[in-house]
Design brief:
With about 325 residues, this protein is α+β, with helices and mostly antiparallel strands. It folds into two domains: about 1-35 and about 105-175 and about 275-330, FAD/NAD(P)-binding domain (3-Layer(bba) Sandwich); about 40-100 and about 175-275, Polyamine Oxidase, Chain A, domain 2. The protein has helices spanning about 10-25, 65-75, 95-105, 150-160, 165-170, 225-230, 235-250, 315-330; strands at about 1-10, 30, 45, 50, 80, 90, 110, 115-120, 125-130, 140-150, 175-185, 195-200, 200-205, 220-225, 260-275, 285, 290-295. The strands form four sheets. Strands 1, 2, 7, 8, 9, 10, 16 and 17 form an eight-stranded mixed β-sheet that branches. It has a five-stranded antiparallel β-sheet with strand order 12-13-14-11-15. Strands 3-4 form a two-stranded antiparallel sheet. The longest helix has 20 residues, at about 315-330. It is globular and about 70 Å long. The structure holds flavin-adenine dinucleotide. Flavin-adenine dinucleotide binds near residues 270 and 311.
Length: about 325
Amino acid sequence: MQAEIIIIGAGMAGLMAGRVLAAAGKKILILDKGRRIGGRMSSRRDAGLLFNHGAQFVTAHSPIFKDICDQAAAKGIVGLWPATGRDTAFSGQPSMRDIASFIGADLAIQQEVEIEKIDRLDKGGFTLHAKSPSENGSPHYHCQHILLTAPAPQAARLLQPLSQQLSDVAAGVRYAPSWIVMAELQQVPDNLAPVLIDKGIIGWASCEASRPGASPSGAVTIQASAAYSQKFLESPAEKITADLLADFARQHNNTSLNWGYQRAHRWRYAKVIQPAGADTPFMEIQTGSLLATAGDWHPVAASPIRPASGARAEEAVLSGHRAAHEMLQKMAS
Ligand SMILES: Cc1cc2nc3c(=O)[nH]c(=O)nc-3n(C[C@H](O)[C@H](O)[C@H](O)COP(=O)(O)OP(=O)(O)OC[C@H]3O[C@@H](n4cnc5c(N)ncnc54)[C@H](O)[C@@H]3O)c2cc1C
């Protein structure tokens, strides 16, 4: 399959870059190994319940992301979420993944395609090898330029045979893991806190019904604290579920909470705790072909949220935006 530019990753960085490049008339294709668009902007619908088990909310400090949030708000896709106690927190209405879908609308995207290896061709361009055949039956993709937006550890591995420099930058990035429990309260008590922050072993817990546009439900999404997630990273899901539900009950002084649906999810790479340096390279050119990287892990130096963390969806958007514009500039020169 041919495209001028292949973007690996349909998270916020890859989608934003795809939007910029497609708007400039470039033929792009986005490949993502996940079942659904959005990467860590993820929502799960199960047993008639909706859980947002990745990013809980987004903030928009930059004109670029503010503009996207305003456009999405005008279509009823995002709304302010006052229950967070912040006047700048936006949530999907009520699905966070819908924000990613909005950014990626009309882009050429293939899900469930995992790129295992990339070869650089002597005459310029790249061949990408997928783990399993794509829709057209071929496990190979060809393109002139690549933008890689996988989380840094996965990016480092793919970059290793192509660029020692870019691979080393990605290899220096560190993430905190996160355990998440999604569960349903069968009776919702009156004193239920819509959001809990940093209580006991809970880093963040959301009552999904408190999001803008949400229907009433007992769906609760609980994120373990970073310290707990690290300590019990390899523990069984049953232990994590029991610990977090017990702590949630303790925080509400209510030991008789009645739980129905329960499911745990582990993110090995949840939030960036050590991003790539602002002045480290994110692009190389060889034989007329660009190899670029973007993602929350490679935040933009001039961003209004720098020197924050690299742990925010907005940083992924700005990183994708920067990479796309740099690629356009280099392609034009
Ligand atoms: C539990 C949790 C809570 C969070 N809370 C917040 C919050 O409240 N607010 C906030 O702003 N941010 C939050 N974040 C961070 C935010 O979700 C991320 O910063 C942002 O979504 C990252 O976007 P990205 O495009 O850089 O990466 P991702 O979203 O990780 O996208 C990368 C994509 O690459 C794909 N991929 C990887 N390897 C391959 C391969 N080999 N082939 C094909 N595809 C591949 C993946 O499937 C993925 O879809 C949270 C994250 C987590 C996990």
